């Protein structure tokens, strides 16, 4: 009696990578004589999965020696195990076995967990204002459906662009998601989070990116004078430069007098601000000599290898008003010339004594 059919108890199997799955097949009747084999795929490209002869380390018979139950178990499931499996009955021939009957096929889908996500930022630091692109990637997962969420400091960001490749059916997939973020001066302490959800995960996977790694905030230098201009001749004047609100902290401050560097500045320790930016301060004390009148004192700041940023202040002397018409010498009684200061000019007069 020829076998009427090959019986597959389940038409589809879902399994996670690393687990063991079972493919059920039973044969009714004992003839014709010939082996039963398992294949993945169909046609000339099908792959032999199991036969009684040969070695198949990950495949075992569920019921050893049975002539009707050809159920097999495949252990340590891998993503490449996904596909359609066929249980095939062969008829023994004189030279080679002939395919006699095939089961309808069991579709095996392998659920593979996505790899830990990673986030990359711009190739160089960006200043506050224009949107900056960040990219989150993960791969090796199956099935294809995956959800990606971006958050900044815990708040969901709108309009991420997520692409899953390949677009056609595959044993595993890769994901790339991008989002645009406009940085602010206060983002030195901000965090960006990429969160992915997948059917194989008991909980979402998250990765955090510190926006300080992508941020550059230029310093805002200013120069103050004490006392304020104009100043009294030969009195000490202190110029103070304050370069505030910059990030990262790498900065160098230099003083220039009329364009020439001077090493007389006295820097204060670098200070960290509450928002994570930094402030650098330096003072320069000079005497308000006549030669320094109208001199320009410049504070030059080089930050994070960027072009210098400068701020300047001028030293201006005060001009005390001259006392007009004051006699600086008594009129000599002998008729010699007398010097008078009149409106800021020295006058020489020859008095006459009557």
TrEMBL record:
Residues 3-87, 114-208, 221-310 form the Ig-like domain. InterPro entries: Ig-like_CS_Receptor, Ig-like_dom, Ig-like_dom_sf, Ig-like_fold, Ig_C1-set, Ig_sub, Ig_sub2, Ig_V-set. Residues 105-130 are annotated as: Disordered. Keywords: Disulfide bond, Glycoprotein, Immunoglobulin domain, Signal. SUPFAM superfamilies: Immunoglobulin. It holds the Pfam family C1-set. PROSITE patterns: IG_LIKE. The keyword Glycoprotein applies. The keyword Nucleotide-binding does not apply. This is Ig-like domain-containing protein. The lineage of its organism: Eukaryota, Metazoa, Chordata, Craniata, Vertebrata.
């Amino acid at each position: 009696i020829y076998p009427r059919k090959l019986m597959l108890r389940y038409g589809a199997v879902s399994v996670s990578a690393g687990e063991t799955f079972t493919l059920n097949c039973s044969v009714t009747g004992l003839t014709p004589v010939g082996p039963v084999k398992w294949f993945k795929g169909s046609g000339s490209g099908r792959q032999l999965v199991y036969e009684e002869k040969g070695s198949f380390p990950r495949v075992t018979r569920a019921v050893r020696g049975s002539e009707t139950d050809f159920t097999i178990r495949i252990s340590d499931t891998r993503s490449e195990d996904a596909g359609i499996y066929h249980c095939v009955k062969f008829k023994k021939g004189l030279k080679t076995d002939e395919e006699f009957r095939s089961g309808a096929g069991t579709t095996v889908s392998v659920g593979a967990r996505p790899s830990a996500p990673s986030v990359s930022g711009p190739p160089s630091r960006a200043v506050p204002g224009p949107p900056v692109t960040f990219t989150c990637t993960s791969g090796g997962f199956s099935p294809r459906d995956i959800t990606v969420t971006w958050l900044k400091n815990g708040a969901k960001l709108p309009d991420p662009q997520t692409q899953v490749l390949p677009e056609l059916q595959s044993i595993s997939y890769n994901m790339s998601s991008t989002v645009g973020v406009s940085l602010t001066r206060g983002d030195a302490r901000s965090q960006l989070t990429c969160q992915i959800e997948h059917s194989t995960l008991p909980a979402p996977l998250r990765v955090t990116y510190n926006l300080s790694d992508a941020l550059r905030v230029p310093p805002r230098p200013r120069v103050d004078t004490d006392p304020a201009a104009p100043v009294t001749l030969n009195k000490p004047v202190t110029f103070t430069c304050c370069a505030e609100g910059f990030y990262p902290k790498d900065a160098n401050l230099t003083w220039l007098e009329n364009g020439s560097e001077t090493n007389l500045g006295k820097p204060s320790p670098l200070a960290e601000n509450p928002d994570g930016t930094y402030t650098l301060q330096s003072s320069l004390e000079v005497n308000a000599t006549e030669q320094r009148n109208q001199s320009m004192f410049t504070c030059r700041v080089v930050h994070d290898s960027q072009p210098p940023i400068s701020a300047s202040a001028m030293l201006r002397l005060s001009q005390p008003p001259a006392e007009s018409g004051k006699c600086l010498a008594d009129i000599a009684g002998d008729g010699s010339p007398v010097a008078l200061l009149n409106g800021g000019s020295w006058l020489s007069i020859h008095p006459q004594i009557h």
